[in-house]
Amino acid sequence: MTAVIRAKGLGRWYGEVIGLNDLNVEIPAGITGLVGPNGAGKSTFMKLLVGEMRPSSGALQVLGLEPFANLELYRQLGFCPQQDALYDHMSGLQFVTYCMRLGGMNFTDAKNAATRAMQRVHLEGAMQRPVRGYSKGMRQRTKLAQAFAHKPKLIIADEPLTGLDPVARHQVQELYRELGESGTSLLISSHVLHEVQSLTPRIVLIHRGRLLAQGPVGEVRQLLSRHPRKVHLTARDPRGLARALLELPHVHSATLDEDAGGLHIETRDIQAFHSELPALASRTRCGIEGLESSDANLDAVFDYLVG
Amino acid sequence: MKASTHTEIYRPFRGSLRDHPQRWLTIGTSSVRQGFKRKLPALLLFTPVAIGCVIACFKVYFAFSLLSGDLVNNNSLQAQGMAQMVASVLGDVVENIFLYMQGMSFFSLMIVAWYGAGLIAEDRRLGANLLYFARPISRVDYLLGKGYGAAAFGFLALTLPCLMVCFVAAFTSPEWSFLRDEWTTILKVILYTGFWVATVTMLVLAISSLVGRKTHALIGVIGTIVISSGVSEVMANLFREDSFSLLNLFQNFERVGIWIFDRRQHGPDVSIEQTFAALGVFWGICLLILSLRIRKLEVVA
Amino acid sequence: MSQAVLSIRDLVKCYGKVRALDGVNLDVPAGPVGLLGPNGSGKTTLLKLLLGLLVPTDGEAKVLGYHPTRRSDRLSVRTVVGYMPEGDCILPGMSAIELVSTLARITGLTAEDAMTRAHEVLDYVQLEEARYRPTHEYSTGMKQRLKLAQALAHDPKLLLLDEPTNGLDPKGRRQMLELVEDLGRNQGKNILLCSHLLQDVERTCDHVVVLNQGKVVEQGSVSELTAAKGALLLVEFEGDREAFLHHLQAGGLEATPSSENGLKIHWPGSSADADQVFDLAHQAGVAITQLSQQRSSLEEIFLRAVGVTPATHQDQAPVGETA
Fold first, then answer.
1. Cα separation of B103 and A247, whole Å?
2. What is the pLDDT of residues B197-235, one digit of tens each?
3. Which of B245, B237, B159 lies closest to B201 in space, CA to CA?
4. What are phi and psi of C207, to 5 degrees?
5. Alpha-carbon torsion (C107, C113, C115, C121), positive or negative
């Protein structure tokens, strides 16, 4: 498995303030989510990845190359930053073309790539107008366009969905899925955890400049054995179901919902629970209508680890 | 005693709203309070005003004391002669007050500009208009409030020190002659400084509403004064036409002061009616700018 | 109609040739309501009209007994409405407590009431000692909570919240949504929540209104709109897929694969009986990890209402920006 990003003992501080502290992580190809609370070091990490800064200590390799001032890497890298700094006097198309030309493309190729990218973000109607007149969502999509127009191997995106309305969010998420399927790797940082989870199960969780967890969310959840697994069931007869479930040895708590339509249970052994449930259901016939692991999602994992 | 707990964190408001809250007063007082939070600018800006005020008070005090012969306890002719000479040099008390007001114009302008420049500009920049106009406040209330805020600083910079000088004059004059004979001076001082403060407030607020930050507004105010006086000088010399002096705000103020205090006119030959007309146009332009810009502030909210 | 917190009839607002609102007819019930719509759909214009900041070209609106469309009520409607704006907004140079108390005084509270109330709302949003510090030093989370506090200062009956979770990290988002949920469900406040994050709206609101191109294109209670339609079960399982499918077929149920570990089970009748599925799973020896009735998500409802087919990006109606 080739890692697109490799960090070993990566550290970066600003005077006394620590940005990253001995970060060790290998991010494979594909779509990965980068999550963490504010001030965790995500922006620092991204700045190091795109070569804006040098690490204070440790080693960092992106696509096998060291990022700082590395022109060869920049050609294979796309970056969509959080800050909104576009050249207002240019039109959207001119801006993206300009970015392509900065990457070394000749004028015709740059213009074609820019046009295709703007079409893909559904800005073809507005791309000739100056950026000054764009709404927040349009500016965001222009930034995205310049990140993937040159078909990079790796795209790094910092809060790429801010300011987008639900339609645009949906379209951009589709775009990311397509890019991911076509072989581009993506590292997306976002605070909206359910959106990250809908794009990819793989996450990298950073807190206080350190790596807190990495890997698919479900597997990370498994590792958090300190927290018993929570499962939510809806049933016609929740009390009867609760009684039956409490007889299982690994189930140590059952809480009925307020509206008496379901219950939460906590179990120490989720595998056993899943395999024993069908037998129990057919035996007790409590009319189970719904079953879901209420805390195998990114929100819950984040909560457990970051607090 | 009936047991009860009060653990609800959100408590509804059980009071009532006032019928006629003076919203402009709230806005104005908060502007003044914010202005005085930082002590260093206040120190730097008000020190020259304080020094000038003290000097003027002493001049007035000496003038009265010499006239009344209190200071010089020598009845010889020579001593009296000296006293008279010095007194005449110190000049007529009212003249002193008048000159003091003119002299302090620059510093008073600095004070009103410094504290007033950000009143509307910073509101726009920081989004305060979004918060204000979500309240039952009209545009007029907002303008009056900001105007009151800026004018308060002008009052402290110009009117109050002038009144202090009058106060000293009243106390040191023999048998309260100042109050008896020259009490109209006090009214004239209030009238003139009030007019001055109001006009400068208009200028500062109009410019503040046009730009995006306090520093830009400061530059705008100073620039406007400098450019308008520069242009009026150049044009007056070029075309040998005195009425260009109407472009110069401070010369207009001087003429108004001369008219109120009944002094000898000197300088460009411009009538007082023309001066008031020019100032009226000035007020009109400022109010127009303010009404348009504040409307925009309200709608953006 | 008398129960409606907000009633709007034929509301039109034109800016030159652009019809920002094109005949909106709406009755908004009490409780928490989501106001959704793409950019340029007229949401912001609608909010401004409700606050009396704009004069409509035509039509009427009634908010809690006030008519913000009429000159007489333009200002007084703001005594019963609280607004939490989207962008950054603070009063220059003040601390949180000064800001909230000054704004409360401007609304019309007496000085003592304003100060007491300011402390109460700042307690509610959990802004503790930070309330005495100047607001320009605040983090995004604190600024958002401060904005909510100032909207609550005069205890309005209707809260207009514009993107309250903007810029917040996951913990901040959770805190803010808890506050909104508490206000809407426990404290009995009427809320009009504008958000692009449909899952937030689904969680906190009982009712939604969808605007598009100046008109209302969908409205209804969240639970009704997203209710399970028909008998379709989504199942995730671990174990032998073939055996499971075999048993399902034998039991007379049609199943189609939906994902790596998932199946969609179609029911012949009108209501699904999951007990049978568990029976069959037990017989096949597979473990069921997830089971639910297929419901539409709010996102699907929204996308369909504005003319975008979900899961593909083929627009049926032009979804351009009018900005």
1. 95
2. 999 999 999 999 999 999 999 999 999 999 999 998 898
3. B159
4. -140, 145
5. negative
Task: Return phi, psi of residue C296, to 5°.
Answer: -80, 145
Contact C313 A171 (CB under 8 A): yes
For residue B226, tell me if it sits in a domain: yes
Amino acid occupying residue A244: A
Contact of B23 with chain C, judged by CB distance below 8 Å, is answered with yes
Q: What are the helix (H) ranges across chain C? A: 43-50, 96-107, 111-124, 140-152, 170-181, 198-204, 222-225, 241-250, 274-284, 298-305
Counting as low any pLDDT under 70, the low residues of chain A are 1
- One-character DSSP codes across B68-117: HTSS----SHHHHHHHHHHHHHH--HHHHHHHHHHHHHHHHHHHHHHHHT
Across residues C257-271, what is the average pLDDT?
74
Q: Which of A38, A133, A290 sits opposite C291 (nearest CB)?
A: A290
Measured torsion, CA atoms of residues C160, C164, C166, C167, in degrees rounded to the nearest 10: 150
Residues in B touching C152 (Cβ below 8 Å): 10
Chain B hits for C163, Cβ within 8 Å: none
Give yes or no for residue B135 having a pLDDT over 90. Answer: yes
Backbone angles phi, psi at C42, to 5 degrees: 105, 5
How would you class C147 by CB atoms within 10 Å of its CB: exposed for 0-12, middle for 13-18, buried for 19 or more? buried
The lowest-confidence range among A293-297, B290-294, C177-181 is: A293-297
Nearest CA in chain C to A171: C313
Residue B156 lies in a domain: yes
Q: Is residue B265 part of a domain?
A: yes
pLDDT in tens, B84-104: 766 665 567 777 788 888 888
Contact C34, C196 (CB under 8 A): no
pLDDT of residue C263: 84
Task: Give the closest of C81, C92, C155 to B123, CB-based.
Answer: C92
Average pLDDT score, chain C: 87
pLDDT of residue B73: 57
Residue A94 is which amino acid?
Q
User: Considering the domain boundaries, does residue B140 fall inside one?
Assistant: yes
Task: Kindly report the three-state secondary structure assignment for every residue of B170-210.
Answer: HHHCHHHHHHHHHHHHHHHHHHHHHHHHHHHHHHHHHHHHH
Tally of domains in chain B = 1
Query: Which among C82, C87, C120 has the least Cβ separation from residue B127?
Result: C87
Once rounded to an integer, what is the mean pLDDT over residues C265-280? 75
For B260, the domain range is 105-300
Query: How far off is chain B from C148, nearest CA to CA, in Å?
Result: 11
Quote the pLDDT of residue B112: 95
Query: What residue of C is the nearest CA neighbor of A123?
Result: C320
Q: Answer for the pair A265, A245: CB distance below 8 angstroms, yes or no.
A: yes
B21 and C108 within 8 Å at the Cβ level: the answer is yes
Given a cut of 50, whether residue B137 has pLDDT beyond it is yes
Is the per-residue pLDDT at B53 higher than 80?
yes
The pLDDT, as a whole number, for residue B110 is: 93
> Of C284, C299, C292, which Cα lies nearest the Cα of C263?
C292
C abuts A (3+ Cβ pairs < 8 Å): yes
Mutation for testing the C interface, residue in B6, B9, B10, B14 having most C CBs under 10 Å: B10
Percent of chain B, pLDDT > 70?
Answer: 90
CA distance B301 to C47: 10
Q: Measured between CB atoms, which of B21, B30, B130 is closest to C85? A: B130
- Tell me if B298 and C53 make a contact (CB, 8 A cut-off): yes
CB contact under 8 A, A282 and C282: yes
B39 touches C at CB < 8 Å: no
Measuring CA to CA, which residue among C145, C33, C46, C153 is closest to residue B136?
Answer: C153
d(CA C44, CA A276): 53
